[in-house]
Amino acid sequence: MGMHFMNPVPVQPGCELIRGLLTSNQTWERVAAFCRELGKEAVLAEDKAGFGMNRMFVPFLIEAVKVVEEGVMSCEDADKTTLCLGHKMGPITTLDYVGLDTTLAIADVLREELGPSYQAPDLLRKLVAAGFYGVKNGSGFYLWEQGKKTQVNPAVARYRRRDL
Fold first, then answer.
1. Which of 59, 86, 128, 133 has the fewest beta carbons under 10 Å from its own?
2. What tens digit of pLDDT does each residue of 11-50 get?
3. Beta 142-145 vs 41-45: how paired, if at all?
C-alpha cells in the first residue's frame, strides 16, 4: 500500500493511495482512514509508472521549464499564468518546492517507462548538475532565504538571455 503526497505537502490537499496487488481490505481501510485523519483528499491510483499525478503533472512542469528556457516567458510570468487558473502556486515555484533533482529523477523514470514526451529539458539538467535543487538548498529557479523567494536565480536569467 502506498501513499503519494502532493507537493508541497503542507499546501496541497491531495494524497494518492496506491493499492498493491496483495494489499488486504483491512490495510486499505486503515490507510484510507489515516489519509482522512491527516485532512487529505484521497485520490485512488494504480501502481503504474508515475501513478496518476506524476503522469499528468510532470509534462506540465517540463513544459513550464521549456517556456522559460526558450525565452517565451520569465519564471515570474510562467508562475502567474497558472495562478490565473486557480493553482495555489505556479509551476516554476512548484519545481523549486518539489526539488529540481527530484523532478528530474521522476522525469527520467517516466521517459524510460513511457517515452520521449517526458524528456527533461536541458535547462533542468544543467541546474541540477550545478547543484541547484530548489528550496531545500536555497537555490533553484529562484533564490530562497528562510523559505521565501528573494529573486530569480541569476544563472537562470543568464541562460535565458543567451538563448534569446
1. 86
2. 788 999 999 999 999 999 999 999 999 999 999 998 888 8
3. unpaired
Got the DSSP string for 103-130?
Answer: HHHHHHHHHHHH-GGGPPPHHHHHHHHT
Is the same domain home to 12 and 60? no
For the chain, the 3-state helix, strand and coil shares in percent, each to the nearest 5, are 50, 15, 30
Which residues, other chains included, contact 87 with Cβ-Cβ below 8 Å and sequence gap of 6+? none
Give me the domain span that covers residue 33. Answer: 2-45
Q: Are residues 36 and 115 in the same domain?
A: no
Pairing of strands 2-5, 14-18: antiparallel
pTM of the model as a whole: 0.84
Please tell me the distance from the alpha carbon of residue 70 to that of residue 84, in angstroms, as a whole number.
22
Catalytic positions, please? Answer: 4
DSSP 50: T
pLDDT digits (tens, 9 = 90+) for 102-133: 999 999 999 999 999 899 999 999 999 999 99
